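User: Hello! My lab partner asked me to get a predicted holo structure for this protein. The small molecule is S-adenosylmethionine, SMILES included with the sequence. Please write out the structure tokens.
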Amino acid sequence: MIEQNNPFSIQQDSPLKDALKNDIRRYWNDKQPGQWYSKQKTGEKEYYDDIDYKRYNIFSPYIPKIAEFSEHKGEKVLEVGIGMGLDLKQYSKNGAICYGIDLTEGAVNKAKRVFEIYGLKAELQVMDAENLKFDDNTFDLVYSMGVLHHTPNTQKAINGICRILKPGGKAIVMLYSKSWQHYVIRVFYAGIIGRELFRMSMQELINKYSEAYGFSPLTKLYSRKEVKSFFTKFSQVDVSHWHYKVPDKNGIMQKIKSLKNRKYLQGNWVIKAIK
Ligand SMILES: C[S@@+](CC[C@H](N)C(=O)[O-])C[C@H]1O[C@@H](n2cnc3c(N)ncnc32)[C@H](O)[C@@H]1O
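Assistant: Hello! Below are the structure tokens for the protein in complex with S-adenosylmethionine.
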């Protein structure tokens, strides 16, 4: 299991882990998913409107269903790894009391700008998911979309989420899955045909190809069994499997082009767990 025997997956605090965390912080500070969806002027309302539309209608139309944006009115909701804050904004628009954290200042500043533009309120802070500085039993919902596979000690972060949830509170977490697409695209295509596995480890290959920006410092892929093992402290756990959508508005050629692009072939686990 990758958590136990992979050098990129470090359980104890150590100088090696600090160095990796710094690389992760540097990498994500100016890179957020979907930044490239809009050609409007960065930071303006038209830019975020455009990204919003494409996120929820073209690239990830399943997110509103997974995230249950409209089902947490009046509840205390924390998003772990907010990125630009777009999903947290949806909870806020739907009447939740919102809190958000991210490892990077870049993300928190962008999210603050998003909340300011849309006239919404949230407590947003730089914080490490592996060291959640909230009291026990604080939140009704903790949501984390595509974040915890990028942190060295994923189990520690999930234990922290369980601790800060109220009894009966819910966690909604998306983690990348180790699916057949991963083997075809990364291992066969890049690793064997491209001979990259002769020059780098499997983990380095995954890091190189997992993100649209390339060369992530750390991206882990999990099996269903591994994912379930993270949530044993919860009383009820539901795991489902989702895929990025291939945008089809430009017809068949666009589909073929997109299918060649590994980022549309990544499968995701969505875990909904009750404390
Ligand atoms: C792929 S982005 C996802 C952002 C957002 N959830 C979304 O769906 O657009 C990963 C985010 O996780 C953050 N992140 C990575 N490791 C983290 C950690 N240990 N604690 C908090 N945030 C972290 C990164 O800074 C980045 O903003």
